[in-house]
Amino acid sequence: MRLIDYVHQGGLIMYILVILNIIGITIIFWKIFSLYSYKNRLDSIAKFIADGFKKKTSTASMGETLKHSLVKDEVDNEMSKLESGLNTVKIIASVAPLLGLLGTVIGILGAFDVISKKGLSDPSLFAGGISLALITTVGGLIVAIPHLIGHNYLVRAIDKIQAKLEDKVFSKVF
Fold first, then answer.
1. 163, 24, 34: which is closest to 91 by C-alpha?
2. What is the pTM of this model?
3. Residue 104's Cα: distance from chain center in Å?
4. How far apart are CA 83 and CA 48, in angstroms?
5. At what angle do helices 123-173 and 12-40 cross, to 10 degrees?
6. Among residues 1, 11, 89, 123, which is most buried (max CB within 10 A)?
7. Are residues 45 and 165 in contact, defined by beta-carbon separation less than 8 angstroms?
8. Biggest CA pair distance of the chain
9. Between the CA of residue 15 and those of 7, 35, 132, what are the distances in Å?
10. d(CA 174, CA 158)
């Protein structure tokens, strides 16, 4: 059986899972490319943030603790740009198994409906509902697992970039 046949057999739930998978994987690859590009420009970004911070606070006299806090806020604002899209990946990783479970329940309900109407005289009728249940469960897990891994990888990568950026900005400001 071909992959597309499994998708057709899984019905609406599988089509939704395929669409979510395409969206999520696209975001993951886009974020990986963005992070790679961002890492290559880290020095110039740190200089830009430090210069902007110095202009904002050039006449203000403030303590070192406040300056550290404000620099961290500037870096956090910059990091929020990199974090865009991560919530979508996380939501897909969370929702996909639930959609698979929904397909499981729908399949089991269909199987019991067949049993109540026709009895167990023809097991192939009952097997269709069970097949739908298993296909959507597998589909939900196949979508969720890579998205969960991708989300965790991207969060760790952004945390590392943030630490490097903070160090570079602090060295330019202080």
1. 24
2. 0.84
3. 24
4. 19
5. 20
6. 89
7. yes
8. 87
9. 7, 30, 13
10. 24
- Predicted pLDDT of residue 17: 96
> Which residue carries 């740009």 as its tokens?
81
Residue 88: closest CA among 31, 35, 37: 31
Rounded Cα gap, residues 9 and 136, in angstroms: 9
Measured between alpha carbons, how far is 93 from 126 in angstroms, rounded to an integer?
A: 31
Distance of CA 14 to the CA centre of its chain: 19
DSSP 59: S
Q: What is the pLDDT of residues 54-93, one digit of tens each?
A: 777 665 566 777 778 888 888 898 899 899 999 999 999 9
Measured between alpha carbons, how far is residue 8 from residues 11, 110, 131, 152 in Å? 5, 16, 12, 31
- DSSP string covering 78-146, please? HHHHHHTTHHHHHHHHHHHHHHHHHHHHHHHHHHHHHHHHHTTS-HHHHHHHHHHHHHHHHHHHHHHHH
